Each structure stands twice: as C-alpha cells, then as structure tokens.
Amino acid sequence: MKTVDAVRADALDLSPWGRLYDLADAGSPDVVSTQGLDWRDGYTNQPVVDGPTHLGMTAGPALSSPVSLMEHHLHTREGIAPIAAPIVVPVAEAPRADAITALLLQPGQCLMLNTGIWHAPALGIAGPSVYYWLAGVDQTVADTWVEITDGPVTIRADHV
Question: Which domains occur in the chain, in start order?
C-alpha cells in the first residue's frame, strides 16, 4: 500500500487541481473582507461556480482510513471547506496511487477543484472529518466512484 504525505495547500501551486481561497486572510487580493464591531466576513471576489449551485456537508472518515475510491465531476467545479478542524483532501488528475496529492486545508480555507479533478472524501486529522462542499448538482448525472489503480493509499500528516 502506497503512503502519501500530506502537504499544506497554501504551500503549493494548485493550478493543476484548482485554486485555494483563504477567506480568513483580509489581505488576500482574492478575498473581499468586511467587518463590524463583533464580526468579520470574507468572500471570494469572483464567482467560483457557474450556474445553479448547491451547498452540502459531508461527514467523512479519519486520516487512519485507507483511501480506495475517487470521483470526479465533468459538469461543475467543487469547493471543499473544513468547518472546525483541518482536513486532508486527496486529489489527482487520474485515479492512480502514483498521481495522488494530499492537500491539508485549515478552517477558513476553501479549495475550489477544477472541473474533472479526481478527489476522495476529505479525511479528518484528529478524527472523522466534517466539511462543506459547494457545487452544481445535476440529478441526471450519476456520481461514479472508481477504485484507485494500485491503491488503496494511506495518508500521513504528522509532519505538517
């Protein structure tokens, strides 16, 4: 079984897979920041998904679970954002063990995957994960999960 080391999403050029937005970074040129007396807000300065968009929440496995399946969407981009704890998102241009990169996201960050990028459910570092996703949902298109070639893989994040 192949082991993949997680890397901080903000430490890489993510253009092969998507784009990272740090909604908590008031200085980011990609984020519009506002605040009041006891609140602050950050949102992307550009639309991130075309057409009708749905917001969902996934409860996924812990980092200790092997990753054996991936999916991709050919009709939409997908945003993935941790709610209260860091998560690791396995991504790849093809569902092969040697193609997987494991991206560590912190709360406040949102990874917008490019259309067609393979990904697995996000993994929680300290336990099962809980995260939001944002994507166009087309009920006429079935999500297809495929086995990872030469998989499964395990993800290690004790170094980040």
Answer: 2-156 (2.60.120.480)
